C-alpha cells in the first residue's frame, strides 16, 4: 500500500515529496472534500517538483462539482490536465447524471480517477461501470469529514468489495476519508493500491498546515 498526501501549495508539495510520499495530490481542503486549486497553483507545483527531479505521480482535483452534466466537468478536466499532472481526480456523487459523467470521462482522453463519495453509501452499478472504462484508478472518499473516517461511513465488507472489484479490473484502488495513523493496520489489511491522507499529516485539522514530522511518523508505520 502506497501513501497519497494531499497538499495545497508548492511549499507543502515539496515537504510531501521530500518526506517520501508516494503520490502528491493537489487540492484545497478549505473548499471542501475535493476543493480545487487554481490552475496557476497546480502548474507551479508541477513545474517546481519536476525541475527538482522529483518524479512522484501528481494528481489534482477539479473541485466539488455535482455529477449532473458532463460538459462543465469535462471543461475542468481539460483545464487541470493541461497543467501537466499525472492524473485528474473527479468526484462522483449519487446524482442522476453520474452515469453520463462517467461515460464522458472514459472517453475524455485524459487519465481520470473518479472518486466515489461514500456518505450515502456506494453506488455499485456506477462503480462497476467505472471498472469497465479502462481508467487508471478508482477511489472512494468521504464528503462530510465531520461524520468521521471512511471506516465510520462504510462497512469493512463494502470496502473489501470495492478494493476487490477495482483490483480485478486492472485499475489502481484508492481509499481516503479523514484517515489517521490509528487506521494504518486496518488499511494494510484492506490493502488498496494507495491510501490518501490529509488530516493525519497536518498540525491540527485538515485545513491546517502540512506537518513534516507527522508525515514521517505515518510513513514509518507503513
List the helices and strands and how they pair.
Elements: E1 2-7, H1 10-19, E2 23-26, H2 39-51, E3 58-61, H3 70-81, E4 87-92, H4 98-106, E5 112-117, H5 124-131, E6 137-141, H6 150-153, H7 156-169, E7 172-175, H8 184-190, E8 194-197, H9 212-221
Parallel strand pairs: 1-2, 1-8, 2-3, 3-4, 4-5, 5-6, 6-7, 7-8
Helix pairs in contact: 1-2, 3-4
Describe the fold and architecture.
The protein is an alpha/beta fold. It has one domain (2-221): Copper homeostasis (CutC) domain (TIM Barrel). Helices cover 39% and strands 18% of the residues. Strands 1-2-3-4-5-6-7-8 form an eight-stranded parallel beta barrel, surrounded by five helices. It starts with a strand and ends with a helix. The model has no long low-confidence stretch (mean pLDDT 96).
DSSP strand tally? 8
User: How would a textbook summarize the main sheet?
Assistant: 8 strands, parallel, barrel
Based on CA atoms alone, the radius of gyration comes out at 16 Å
Would you state the CATH class? Alpha Beta
Element order: H for helix, E for strand: EHEHEHEHEHEHHEHEH
Residue windows where pLDDT falls under 50 for at least 5 positions: none
Helix count, per DSSP?
Answer: 9
- Helicity, as a percent range: 25-40%
State which percent range the strand residues make up. Answer: 15-25%
In short, what is this structure?
The protein has helices spanning 10-19, 39-51, 70-81, 98-106, 124-131, 150-153, 156-169, 184-190, 212-221; strands at residues 2-7, 23-26, 58-61, 87-92, 112-117, 137-141, 172-175, 194-197.
